[in-house]
Amino acid sequence: MRGTEPTWSQCRRLARSVRAARHGREAYAWMRPRAAAGMFRQRGPLPLLLAVAAAEGLLVSQGDSGVAVLEPPMRKRRRPLSVRWTVLRFAAQHWGLLLLAGPPISLLLLAIAAALLHAVVPALLVIAVLTAYLAAAMTSGLITQIVSDSRRPPIRAVANTMAATSWSLVLLHQPDDQSARQLFDSAYQRFTALVRAEIKLAAHELGGEVRVRVTDTLVGRLSGITTEVMRDLVSSSVRAGMPFGPGTELILMANATTDQEPSTRQPQVAFFWLYLFALTVLTLGLPMMIVVPERSDCLGAECAVALTDYGRALDWLVYQMLFQNVPGLSPSSGNSVVLGVLAHLLLPMTLLVGVVAARRSMAEHRHRVSVAQRERERMLTNAHVLIVVTTPVEWRSVARAAYRATGKAVAMDFQHRQVVYELGSIRDTTVSMIRIGDQGALSPGGSALSTVDAIQQVRPDYAILTGICYGLRPKEHRIGDVVLGKRVQDLDHQKWVEEQTIQVRGENIQPSPTLLGRCHAVAGTWTGSAVREGEMVSWTKLLNSDSAVKALREQRPDAIGGEMEGSGFHAAARREGVEWVIVKSISDWAGQHFDAEGREAEIGKPDDFQQRAADNAADFVLHMIEMGALSAKPSDMRR
User: Fold this and answer.
1) pTM (2 decimals)?
2) Where are the domains of the chain?
3) What confidence score (pLDDT) does residue 262 get?
4) Nearest alpha-carbon partner for 521 in 509, 508, 510, 533
5) Which fold does the domain 271-344 belong to in CATH?
6) CATH class of domain segment(s) 382-632
């Protein structure tokens, strides 16, 4: 359906598929809530809603079964459509109003026409039908309001408020469990594309051009998700947060989530409804207390106006509540007079209880909205860490470590030049990852350009290059030891002089003191492999030579390890003003023949050690995040 207007038959098939789902009726009621006049739906039939959403670019479909529908905030200007679709959109959005006002207006015009033609009887009949229609609509609206207010949980009202002020995912339906994640990701990508297009259009109209990163939240409701698999998938997504706890109505989706426990209040008893119930019982029971004394105390003619039966007593009591007297009725007993005086107090007491209940309800609603807003702000303001890896082994190690910490699978963002892998939130720290396309620093897919693109996309507070490296001290260190680069020496910039003398002219840079301090602190709580600190060399040459390693060790006697991407990585991070550090783990000795324990052996560069080293480096980085070491933004520290 993307890019073309769907046929009515396609929309009808999608609507039938939604209704047939396990939670389809709940989603249908959410898409088409009752209007103020309860006998009508507020919005049009579901096929019409789907067709209009597709015309506006708000519908994402998968054949004739899977469908997701987005809805912009109420304040947003809707996309201009053709005359046909504009009329259909108005009908879909104001269906209840059209059904409520359309027939009465038509009947009124018909009655006027009949009266002008002197057809009095038909005119009266039309007016009678019109009166009955309005009475039925008003009665239905009153009953619906009372029933819905008593059944609707407070969180649903908060969800309605949030959905009206933010982009919302109003429907998510896919009966095929295998395609559920694809539909959810497509819906989220459509949301980011729509927001980005809107901002770019606004900039273009002002004569400018911008690069856009979407930071808004997408509000979802559990009622709009039709299958259990899809509900579990959304709830467990790294993008989703539920401010009122698992299984509740409101779902907030963004490029970040929170793992803090929600701050909620205990549900309160609806005292106003209990008061009305008690008042009704009292009103129906008091006439029995009036009738008996009235029958015994009335004398002769007084009995004609006395409250001697239940109907008279009930009428008189209701009038007393309204500070009125019933013509032709008068109490004859002192007991009735006292009860009448007490009945005068019920109306002001009811008004007082109603005002207090309304204020408490509004305060509770404001509190819940503030909780949701704080959650939304927290989702958007977490400290952000970008983890940079190069090889598939490194990617898998980080993904597994993040899954152990969050319990959520990796989500992929394809909206930018660089694919960003969202790993979720850990201790108020949003974690993203990129994988560099090529080894080394200077190629188009190397660490320098890839890191610049990623930083400009996600705007992280911290950047960490992790993965595997080669060691330079096989007698002192072991395969799998974590290497923390206290300084990074760039070996690519060299000057060759006579007698094959090489002068290194590259930078020797210290990483972020903040991140180094964090690494030092958490190393004391790390129970994994040994953590080695020292100088790392960065050279875009793949070493597998004993002589080259010996020359390197002689040239850089303080170096403890080396790799290929560090120089481009730190140059990009420094250019973009991001705190950075390099944390890797030894997987080999760059061609020298030593085994895992540093003993000489004819094993070259064993791939078996790469997985162990990548796991250790990833575990150390995630351990640092889990300790809360990166939960504070650098900007907050400077305050």
Assistant:
1) 0.56
2) 95-151, 271-344, 382-632
3) 38
4) 533
5) Helix Hairpins (1.10.287)
6) alpha beta
